[in-house]
Write a structure and sequence with these properties.
The complex is a heterodimer of chains A (293) and B (496). By secondary structure, chain A is an alpha/beta fold. Chain A has one domain: Aldehyde Dehydrogenase, Chain A, domain 1, CATH 3.40.605. Helices cover 41% and strands 16% of the residues of chain A. The longest helix of chain A is centred in the middle third of the chain and has 21 residues. In chain B, strand 7, helix 5 and strand 8 form a beta-alpha-beta unit. Chain B is globular, with a radius of gyration of 22 Å. Chain B starts with 37 loop residues before the first strand and ends with a strand. Classes of the chains: A alpha/beta (293), B alpha/beta (496). Strand 10 of chain A pairs parallel with strand 18 of chain B, so a sheet runs across the interface.
Chain lengths: 293, 496
């Protein structure tokens, strides 16, 4: 007798756990052939709020971890993603990609994680400064994570858009709540399983599936979200995000770019989610000793 | 007009500390200051009448005397200014070599230095700030800002590794009344260094030094239209924000107006930097050098009458030393001299406007109504002009409006704490994140606090220090973008 395949239940990812949506609702996106991709969680406003709470809770620990440790964890994420090649390629193909393109997307996603893993303990060094002020003070500017970032994954790909934004956001010590691609949600959920086995603390990345038009407002008006990253190209969505962000002055970054292009990865993707902190301290100045010899 | 000003007898009889030691008035002369009766708009290198033909008065808040009449620009005037800026950008400024740009900016800096005294006198007359402060802080910092950014003009490619840089075009800049000339410098200098043209609007209560700066810019030979100065009220600012041919908005002011601007430019390609309000924590640990800390508290909240966005308006004192610090603080408050800003003895000058005085007095009422304990230094205030006694409130709750809202006046809310963790929580528990102060003798504790306080500027064992090389700006609802230093260039450049 032929063995019956065990099907996977696609769940959302909040605080390092895999609940189903609290709303109990689901939707069934279809691929081009008309096959249902699965019963995908139709996340609710409440799920967004729970995810933001989880992200905020994780922020202190994650942002204060050593940069080296963050780097190791991002590298570990790449290792785990590499180890699940077959599953991701299958899902990408099932969602409509050609095999070669699926391979390419997966390769780029893995390499992107490696790229940002390397930046974790370097961007502060490249961007920071000691400022030569005129008074007797030691003055320096360094970079700190902006906080909780709402990530709206793009409409083009199932995996690469999401990884291309989440990687620089968390490399810089932020935590995030991601709204997955509404029509191609499978890889986002499976990526959560990668995260879960990568030593990434729960809550650093939270992933929700569902309808963008339901989740956009609760995420972008949430007063405990500090920034929004939008990987799409829709001008109206961008404007809505900007308007929704006014009340607590979220930093809104929109990226209408081709993530298959190597140029779409760089240092400034990290600094887009950083705040500059300048610290002053007096320098004692008594006596006439000089440092010249 | 200023010439006719008689030395004011306003300087208050002070304070117990100076009883028997009255200071003789030491008034800065206003005789060499040349103020016209009426000022027009500076557009395209010319002084032009406002199309509405309307003018408004700017007064000396220390005496309520009128200093001059200033043109009220409407949207037609703003349009004229933006067109002039665009034309100058396209035809001249974008074709001027970076090293030549630098020389213009250096020249402006030098001309300002030459006329520094005049600037400080006018600033004190128009804004109510003490002559000591405008002479020693505002004006030198403004000159230095031009000097600093001048040198960047031909070195921009060193600032952003691996990126191509381009200027934006026309920058619309709206500045507040607390540091009128200095804010104009913070805005204009980096904009010019990065190759942009400017339409700047000074605040309605303090337009004079910006207009004086226009005279200097004119004298410098800067091509017409590169810098345009339009005066007016909020609607003039709105016309700049909403003008379709403006590429960048730089705003310093209240968080409320900052949000209106954000709303207005949503969906456009306008780049923005917002430097907004604050409610900054000044934290005194029990091992701090107390006398220095008390000076730091005084400087933190009473500098410039408390009209400072980064003012240390929330004081946190560790419980064990609270009584001692508060006693010393009251004693020091009592010795502050409040009065005529033109008197070199004066520590605290006039509140910038009647409107602002009303706002501050409103908060004093709120504080009392909420049950907080108010203390004010027992000094006499001048009969004319707008003044407020240095004020502190004890026993304020974290939820008090005195703790949560920006007052923008000489009003300090005092809370106590026991542990480092507690004070970090309390200090960060605000929508703002502009600045913070930390006072302790222990180096490792300084860095524990400075790294955990969510604020753009942190002063350790000092407060309210500024420098052109030092980036300034906030976290959270205190705005975004930085002004000053290398980081201040980014807001005026397109990176690709």
């Amino acid at each position: 007798m032929e063995r019956l395949e065990v099907l996977k239940t696609y769940k959302i990812y909040i605080g390092g756990k895999f609940p189903r949506t609290e709303s109990g609702r689901y939707y069934s996106p279809k691929n081009a052939k008309g096959e249902a991709l699965g019963n995908i969680c139709l996340s609710s406003r409440k799920d967004v709020r729970n995810a933001v709470v989880a992200a905020r809770k994780a922020f202190g620990d994650w942002s204060e971890r050593s940069a080296f440790n963050r780097s190791q964890i991002l590298y570990r994420m790449a290792e785990m993603l590499e180890g699940r090649r077959a599953q991701f390629v299958d899902e990408l193909v099932f969602q409509g990609a050609k095999k070669a393109n699926a391979e390419k997307e997966l390769n780029m996603a893995i390499d992107r994680l490696i790229y940002y893993a390397g930046w974790c303990d370097k961007y502060v060094q490249v961007l920071s400064s000691v400022n030569p002020v005129s008074s007797a003070h030691f003055n320096f500017s360094t970079y700190e994570a902006t906080g909780v970032v709402g990530v709206i994954a793009g409409e083009k790909t199932s995996l690469l858009d999401l990884v291309s934004i989440v990687a620089p956001v968390i490399a810089g010590g932020n935590t995030c709540v991601v709204i997955a691609n509404e029509h191609l949600p499978l890889c986002a959920v499976t990526f959560a399983e990668v995260l879960n086995s990568s030593d990434l603390p729960g809550g650093v990345v939270n992933i929700l599936t569902g309808k963008l038009n339901e989740l956009l407002a609760p995420l972008s008006t949430h007063m405990d979200v500090n920034a929004i990253a939008y990987a799409g190209s829709d001008a109206d969505t961008k404007k809505t995000l900007q308007l929704n962000s006014v009340e607590n002055l979220k930093r809104v970054r929109a990226y209408d770019m081709n993530w298959f292009d190597e140029k779409s990865q760089d240092l400034y993707m990290i600094s887009d989610f950083q705040e500059v902190k300048t610290t002053w301290h007096p320098i004692e100045n008594i006596g006439g000793a000089s440092s010249s010899y | 007009m200023a010439k006719k000003q008689t030395p004011s007898k306003a300087t208050a009889k002070t304070s117990q500390a100076s009883k028997g030691w009255d200071y003789s008035p030491s008034l800065e002369s206003t005789s060499h200051v040349d103020l016209k009766k009426q000022y027009n708009l500076y557009i395209n290198g010319e002084w032009v009448k406002p199309s509405s033909n309307k003018y408004f008065k700017t007064i000396n808040p220390a005496t309520e005397e009128v200093l001059a009449e200033v043109a009220y620009a409407n949207d037609k005037d703003v349009d004229r200014a933006v067109k002039a800026a665009r034309k100058a950008y396209t035809e001249v400024w974008s074709k001027t070599s970076p090293s030549e740009r630098a020389k213009y900016i250096y020249r402006i800096a030098r001309l300002m230095q030459e006329r520094a005294r005049e600037f400080s006198v006018i600033e004190s007359l128009d804004a109510g700030k003490t002559i000591r402060e405008s002479r020693d802080v505002d004006v030198p910092l403004a000159c230095n800002h031009f000097f600093y950014y001048a040198g960047w003009a031909d070195k921009l490619e060193y600032a952003f590794p691996n990126r191509k840089i381009e200027s934006l075009g026309v920058a619309g800049q709206i500045i507040p009344w607390n540091f009128p000339l200095l804010m104009a410098a913070w805005k204009i200098a980096p904009a010019l260094a990065t190759g942009n043209c400017v339409v700047l609007k000074p605040a309605e209560t303090t337009p004079l030094t910006a207009l004086k700066l226009a005279e200097i810019i004119h004298d410098s030979g800067l091509p017409p239209g590169v810098v345009n100065i339009v005066t007016g009220y909020g609607d003039t600012g709105a016309a700049i924000v909403n003008h379709p041919d403006v590429d960048k908005i730089a705003f310093t002011g209240s968080t409320g107006v900052g949000k209106i601007i954000q709303k207005a430019i949503a969906g456009t390609n306008k780049k923005a930097t917002l430097e907004l309000g604050g409610k900054s924590a000044n934290i005194i640990m029990d091992d701090a050098p107390i006398d220095q800390a008390v000076e730091g508290i005084i400087n933190g909240i009473f500098f410039n009458q408390g009209h400072v966005c980064c003012a240390g308006s929330r004081l946190f004192v560790q419980e064990g030393i609270a009584d001692k610090v508060i006693e010393k603080l009251k004693h020091r408050m009592n010795s502050l001299i409040i009065g005529d800003p033109m008197d070199k003895n004066t520590d605290i000058g006039a509140i910038n406007s009647k409107e602002q005085l009303d706002v501050i007095n409103g908060y004093l009422k709120i504080g009392k109504a909420e049950g907080a304990e108010m203390y004010q230094s027992p000094c006499d205030l001048p009969r004319n002009g707008y003044y407020c006694r240095p004020t502190l409130f004890l026993n304020v709750a974290q939820s008090s409006r005195l703790v949560q809202e920006e007052i923008f006046g000489p009003v300090l809310a005092i809370q106590t704490f026991r542990t480092v963790d507690e004070v970090i929580q309390k200090a960060n528990n605000t929508p703002f994140g502009l600045a913070a102060g930390v006072w302790t003798d222990k180096g490792s504790r300084i860095f524990n606090l400075t790294t955990k306080l969510r604020a753009g500027v942190v002063w350790a064992n000092t407060y309210n220090k500024f420098d052109p090389a030092s980036p300034f700006g906030g976290y959270k609802e205190s705005g975004f973008g930085r002004e000053g230093g290398l980081h201040g260039l980014e807001g005026y450049l397109k990176l690709s």
